[in-house]
Design brief:
Strand content: 15-25%
Strand order of the largest sheet: 5-4-6-7-3-8-9-10-11
Mean pLDDT: 86
CATH topology of the largest domain: Rossmann fold
Oligomer: single chain
CATH class of the largest domain: Alpha Beta
Number of domains: 2
CATH superfamily of the largest domain: P-loop containing nucleotide triphosphate hydrolases
Number of strands: 14
Order of helices and strands: EEEHEHEHEHEHEEEEHHEHHEE
Helix content: 25-40%
Shape: elongated
CATH architecture of the largest domain: 3-Layer(aba) Sandwich
Radius of gyration: 29 Å
Length: about 375
């Protein structure tokens, strides 16, 4: 029986010196030439996150976008760019059958010869963590202009912790690098989680916040209040260009998508609605009503100004002159704070103060027209 002989460690052996990475001078880099498959929503060479609650119809939205890309039809806001230029789409789904996707694509008038589908059967077992090489080879073989992964987290395997930043970030970097390598846009579809979304509408995406932090573009699909077949796509993040307008669309009876216009709902609306525990539609109505009330208050304040002296009013005096609802149901100080910046833009100054009337002190405010004359003239 042979015996394993332990060799003594070499004495005095010096470990090789680490090799430093080489950084480029800023001047060595070229110009940023980011282009869009659908500007500003789908940048080429990066991924876009699309978030939606279950049952919202995010897959129908994906099919509608894929249909337009495949048939060379311009999408809303893109003008005539891309018209008649049919492009390849690779659709990887973990939830739908190819037959269902085909029906939805057909309902949106897709060029079915330009869309390649890995449905819930053909995509089974794909693992972007343990077998990324297979995923990359699959993508590159179809030379897509658009890749849709629905939902993205279905292909990460059972061991990766979606909520850990250091676990998710390398995967996200792979997505971005692959999109750049194939010169395509990529849509990563995400379910909405139950976390509070008041501070940031992008917190709706499933998994680590780094998922959205690393994305360069993100959209949220929501229901349109009171319209069961209508949805709104809100552009909640845009790093390569100004955010695009929120777009309205309707789901047709046969499961297709029909664009219907734009919506005033924004990322701010979603966040305000979450804080108010309301719907985006009701939040818009509240904001519009509030703006109307503020405008009436601003007009009343301007009319009350003496052009040569500061004017002081008690809150009760101002209500007696302009009606009990002149402050819009808010505390007067809060209502005045809400319009102070708007007044300042027009050259007026307002602030709370004490007002002495008939030997009594009351809460009130002063308002005056600021002298904007240029003394150098």
């Amino acid at each position: 029986m042979s015996q394993r002989i332990e060799q003594p460690a070499e004495q005095g052996r010096v470990a090789p010196a680490p090799v430093a990475r080489v950084a480029k001078m800023a001047a060595e880099f070229g110009e940023d030439n980011t282009h869009f498959l659908w500007g500003p929503y789908l940048p080429i060479g990066d991924y876009t996150v699309v978030m939606a609650d279950g049952g919202t119809g995010k897959t129908i939205w994906c099919c509608g976008v894929a249909a337009a890309i495949s048939a060379g039809r311009p999408l809303p806001g893109s003008g005539e760019e891309g018209t008649n230029e049919e492009k390849n789409v690779l659709f990887i789904s973990a939830e739908d059958s190819g037959e269902i996707l085909k029906a939805r694509l057909s309902a949106s008038c897709a060029n079915l010869d330009r869309i390649f589908i890995l449905d819930r059967d053909d995509s089974q077992g794909m693992n972007l963590v343990e077998d990324y090489a297979e995923f990359e080879a699959t993508v590159l073989s179809y030379k897509p202009d658009l890749i849709i992964i629905d939902p993205w987290h279905a292909f990460l395997g059972p061991t990766l912790n979606l909520n850990k930043v250091n676990a998710v970030r390398p995967i996200l970097q792979r997505f971005a690098n692959l999109a750049k390598k194939c010169g395509c846009a990529m849509i990563l579809v995400s379910h909405v989680n139950k976390r509070s979304q008041g501070e940031n509408a992008n917190n709706a995406a499933t998994g680590s916040a780094d998922f959205i932090n690393a994305a360069r573009s993100a959209c949220r699909i929501i229901f349109d209040d009171g319209e069961s077949d209508s949805r709104i796509m809100v552009h909640t993040k845009s790093n390569y260009a100004a955010s695009g307008p929120s777009l309205c669309y309707r789901i047709t009876e046969d499961g297709g998508l029909e664009w219907t216009g734009v919506s005033p709902i924004t990322k701010w609306t979603l966040e305000e609605a979450a804080r108010r525990r309301s719907t985006p539609g009701k939040t818009i109505q509240y904001t519009q009503t509030r703006e109307s009330i503020n405008q009436k208050l601003i007009e009343a304040l301007k009319l009350s100004v003496n052009q040569t002296a500061t004017v002081r009013y008690s809150y009760d005096e101002f209500k007696a002159q302009n009606g009990d609802f002149i402050f819009g149901g808010l505390q007067p100080k809060r209502a005045l704070n809400a319009v102070a910046d708007l007044l300042a833009e027009d050259g007026y100054f307002v602030r709370p103060c004490s007002v002495r009337r008939n030997g009594k002190t009351a809460n009130g405010f002063l308002v005056q027209k600021m002298d904007t004359t240029d003394e150098s003239e």
